Amino acid sequence: MIASPLLTGDGQLVTMGDVHFNEELAAPQAFGLMRFSRTSDILRGLVRDLSARAAREGLALTDLMDISGRSGHSRIGLDVRLTGEAPMVSDTDRTVEVAVALTALNAALGESLADLRGLCTDGGVDFGRLFIPRGPFLTREEIVAAMERGWLLLPQRHRLAEDGVVEIPLEDVRYVLSSRLLGVGRNFAEMVVKGKHGLTIFQSPSPAGLPRRMEPKEFLVGAVRIALGPYVAFIERETSHPDVFHLASRLLDGIRTTGLATPRQVELYNGGEAAVETSGLAVRLRLYPADAALAKVAQRVLAPSRAKEVLAAGVDFAHLTEIFTPEVNAVLFDEITAAPGQGGSYGRIFMPGRMISIPWEQEEGEWLQEFQWRLVYEYARGNIAEGVLAGEEIPKRARPFLDVLKYVGGEQNLSKVFVSDALPPVDTLRVLKRNGIGVVVARGMGCAVGEVCRLPHFRMDQTLYEELVRLEGEGMRFYLLLEIDGARQVREFYRGLWVTRPGKELLPRVHTTMAMFGSSVDVLEPVLTGPIVDFLRRLRDHPRLGEGFGVAHGSGPGVMRIVDDAAAALGIYRIGVGINAEEIGQHTNFAPEAVAQFTNLALNTRQDILDRRSLFKVFNLGGFGTCYEINMALTFMKIGQCLPAPYIFVDPVGLGPGGQPFWRETLDQFRTLSSDLSGGGHRLGALGPRWIVDCCHEVAGYEEGYAVIAAFLDDPAAYWRARAIPLEKVRAARQNLRAAGMPIAPYIDEALEGE
Fold it and tell me: Given phi > 0 = left and psi -120 to 50 = alpha, else beta, which region is 84?
């Protein structure tokens, strides 16, 4: 029978003796008692039997069971070990108590053990889980089969022993702890109580990477890479070097430990008397089969056709929780209201095994915003017990969502979810992140004070947008449940855009975006629709584009809507970046796979997105807004925030003076300012580079515009040479766009590498 290991919940350190000095480890040490409460009959019976077996057969207790300590404690150098004394088991109290030794292996901890005793007196501190194997670990053959199936990924540098023990060398990564911050106020308590979620602002990767060697009695936090499917991995205390051992955080959970690019911290101590070279240092681990619940999750998220791809990228929060399903999302909001007068709660926090309801904060019937944000802070920090539900107290409708949160991977901060009607202010979002809450779900962006807000309340200013981009880059996730024309849709903030589920999957493939600018009036729809459809079809079918092609527009009516409808019919990826157009009587289009919607005051931010994301710009017939967009687009190209590429100015009707092309006078002005200017006895020279204007193409129809773009696609370098565009300008623009997270088309890289 294949049996998975038995894993308990966290045990609490409830008593702790005097601090002594361990001569062998050259570190302070104390002995204490760890208690596991509300234990099952299975656990108590198993612990009794194993304890008796150890005594009967002369085995060490750690041969049959062990402790996996909390990651945050090990990462600051607190180690916990079983002493080997027989556990105390009580059926009456339903407890298991084990004797442990606590050692402070990090010299920077100072008086940590003395401080820890005070924390235990205050009510106990979660300190680790019991790990009890109930069967053999995986054999070499089983591990090889798992790798071939795509259910286990190991780094290129690894060693698989004949008995199935896996050896993984350290990456060039080291994490350092700020000893100065550690000594401030209650920071040590913050880290001990919250574990790794309390470490965010105290520990960081070192720019210097892994040191060449570990000195005697030195503590080191390094990293390895591994991605686990339906397996549990337990790191052995002994490493590849006899003097170096791994601290107590030794358990790697299946499914949570995915994403090969995510470093997995390992905490090591050189207990020997000589320095140890790190170049050959490796940790050893054993793999065990997962329990039935985890195996079921693995079957759902690790489909045979894409298991390796999912493991390598990391099992996504959305795949596990099905957050993109409106019905699942709606359960999270079932007691949350948009205003205090409507009753219900302001927000909720969901986490594995627990949920918290945050009430509206008001005095004398008036909502106090600043008090509300402070209340969120305190709930996030775990300082308020009111409204915390666990076990049978949790509503049945919410339990499936909570059950899968324990499998969420990454740094596990994505297993904590904050839900409210509207996104809170940016400083509150920062507090949530610092306290280990990695997911925020809302129904909108919120409204101005006193404003009657109707769905979707999607107003986003520049400050909020920039903070969302920053927090997303740091690993947070944001979701919106939008109600539009009676229909629900869920979007995730991904790469600076609010995307649907299909939009998120497709966006990484889009390397070439064309922005289409133009009037919001619908008068010319019969004239423009057919040519625009044909124009987009021909671009989609170009061999260098295909599914890598997308269109961007301003989310409004008129030309923007024509473009969006045509792209949707042709299966072309759509990006809509709009402003609060309802104020000027325009209805926003929320149909595109990716959208961003701003307040009018964030007009420049909106234009920044459209310009940087698009390689080609097409200026259709338009008014004052389109003129603004032309000036901004050319300025972005001049300052190196857009690549030199064709900008198309199209007028298939001849709406300019005397039947001339509509944009003729506009382009003449740009030609003037890029010419050698003189007058009144003054010689100014050109006010802008000529090559900018040479990228502007006045065309009488979309077929002519396609020919210009197709010629560029076939040979970008020839286009740049013909206009005397300095290649250093092209390379600088490419670098700027990469730094901003924008995709670069492969044919651009090929053209630059060939020059």
Answer: left
Q: Which of 595, 674, 687, 692 is nearest to 636 (CA)?
A: 692
Q: Are 651 and 730 part of one and the same domain?
A: yes
Q: Where are the alpha helices (DSSP H) in 132-186?
A: 140-149, 179-182
Which of 205, 417, 412 is CA-nearest to residue 314?
A: 412
Which residue, among 296, 138, 165, 172, has the nearest Cα to 240 in the 3D structure? 165
- Of 468, 494, 520, which marks where a domain is finished? 494
Are residues 639 and 562 both part of a single domain? yes
If you search the block for the tokens 């209340």, which residue do you land on?
Answer: 375
Measure the CA–CA gap between 317 and 439, rounded to whole angstroms: 9
Helix (H) or strand (E) holding 95: strand 95-104
Token pair belonging to 411:
């740094």
| Higher pLDDT, residue 753 or 449 | 753
Structure-token pair, residue 442: 């809302």
141 with 130, same domain: the answer is no
Query: Cα(595)–Cα(106) distance, rounded to whole angstroms?
Result: 48
346: burial class by Cβ within 10 Å (0-12, 13-18, 19+)? buried
Q: Is residue 188 part of a domain?
A: no
CATH number at residue 592: 3.40.50.450
* Intra-chain end-to-end CA distance of the chain, in Å: 64
**Same domain (yes/no): 604, 686:** yes
Torsion sign (Cα): 574, 579, 584, 587: positive
Contact status, residue 434 vs residue 280, Cβ threshold 8 Å: no
Q: Please indicate, yes or no, if residue 195 is contained in any of the structural domains.
A: no
pLDDT tens for 466-517 read: 999 999 998 899 999 888 777 888 999 999 999 999 999 999 999 999 999 9
> Which of 310, 327, 352 is the last residue before a domain boundary?
310
In angstroms and rounded to an integer, the radius of gyration of the C-alpha atoms of the chain is 31
- What confidence tens digit (pLDDT) does each residue in 251-278 have? 999 888 988 888 999 999 999 999 999 9
Question: Is the Cα dihedral 399, 403, 408, 412 positive or negative?
Answer: positive
DSSP conformational letter for 238: B
**Rounded CA separation 14/97 (Å):** 10
Task: Return the residue matching tokens 């080191």.
Answer: 220
Sequence-separated (6 or more) residues with CB below 8 Å from residue 287: 137, 138, 143, 146, 152, 164, 166, 228, 231, 232, 233
CATH number at residue 241: 2.70.40.10
Number of domains in the chain: 4
> 308: part of which helix (H) or strand (E)?
helix 307-313
- Indicate whether 166 and 227 sit together in one domain: yes
> Does residue 339 sit within a domain?
yes
Q: What burial class does residue 649 get, using C-beta atoms within 10 Å of its C-beta: 0-12 exposed, 13-18 middle, 19+ buried?
A: buried
Backbone angles phi, psi at 635, to 5 degrees: -65, -40
Q: Which is it for the CA torsion 183, 187, 191, 197, positive or negative? A: negative
The whole-angstrom separation of Cα 371 and Cα 383 is 15
Q: Which of 347, 345, 349, 333 is nearest to 405 (CA)?
A: 349
CB-based burial of residue 398 (10 Å sphere; 0-12 exposed, 13-18 middle, 19+ buried)?
middle
- Do 332 and 451 belong together in one domain? yes
Whether 82 is covered by a domain: the verdict is yes
Provide the domain limits for residue 433.
Answer: 316-494
Q: What is the pLDDT of residues 586-622, one digit of tens each?
A: 577 889 999 998 887 778 888 899 999 999 999 998 8
Same domain, 82 and 144: no
The single-letter code of the amino acid at 169 is P
Question: Do β-strands 276-277 and 27-36 pair in parallel, antiparallel, or remain unpaired?
Answer: unpaired
Mark whether 237 and 330 lie in a shared domain. Answer: no
pLDDT tens digits along 194-244 = 666 666 667 788 999 999 999 999 999 999 999 999 999 999 999 999 999
**Cβ proximity of 285 and 233 under 8 Å:** yes
